[in-house]
Amino acid sequence: MTTKRQLTLHFDADVAAAIEAEGKRRGLTLSRAANDAIRQAPLDETGDGLASTIKARLDRLDKRDHARARELALIKATMLLFVRVWFEYAGPLDDSDPDAGADAEVRFQSFMSMLAEQIEK
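Above: the chain sequence. Below: its structure as tokens.
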């Protein structure tokens, strides 16, 4: 549990107005808005080291996000292609036909070939 200490602070008029406006904008009490603003000051003073570290981490996250988006697009394309091929070319298999399993394997290999062509595009 964090302990809180009461302090009396005197701000310049423009700083006090800015803190009040920020508190109202974010729906915070004046005390919480001032606490957040004062807490942020040491972070800003750490300089470019922290900023460059944060930027590098955000860039990595952005790259991961783009990779995930591409993977999801490929999965979606795969499923849509499969459904299209299934409904266009695959009629019902005759259960009494002993070659039905071989036909299904040929259809699946054809699907995989078409999928590889689509991914390369």
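The chain has four helices and no strands.
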